[in-house]
Amino acid sequence: MAEPKVWVFFYGSYMNFDVLKDVGIAPREWEVARVNGYDIVIEPRANMIRSNEQCVYGILATATHAELNRLYAHAQNVLGELYLPEPVLAETLSGAWRAALCYIAPSMAAGTVADDYVERILKPAREFNFPEWYIRRLESFRPGKR
Fold first, then answer.
1. Phi, psi (5° rounding) for residue 20?
2. Which of 35, 37, 79, 138 has an alpha carbon within 20 to 30 A of 51's alpha carbon?
């Protein structure tokens, strides 16, 4: 019996299918969505922080718990960031709502942001036609822009 898949909201470099492919994950189901009540920060990795004024765009995708465990073990062991799952309610561009897991770092030491890392986030944001204001927000994290 195949392991069941769950919906997960990816908002940083993991919404880039090339990055996911590098760790052996290829979502079969996915769609663009946003999560209200959060803002995105990149310092040095992408993270979501609570905000009453902002929202974060990303993709809803399906993955197994084993895939998610492998993905976020890589984030911790290779990238040095601990992300923990939290439930969120994401809104698709068609206006549908879906409950999903979202991995958020409870704390992150500030560090230098790499331009190629920001580009791995900007590439899918442009491809998925995120709003222009949101793309400008992501571009503001490039080194020398802050």
1. -60, -40
2. 79
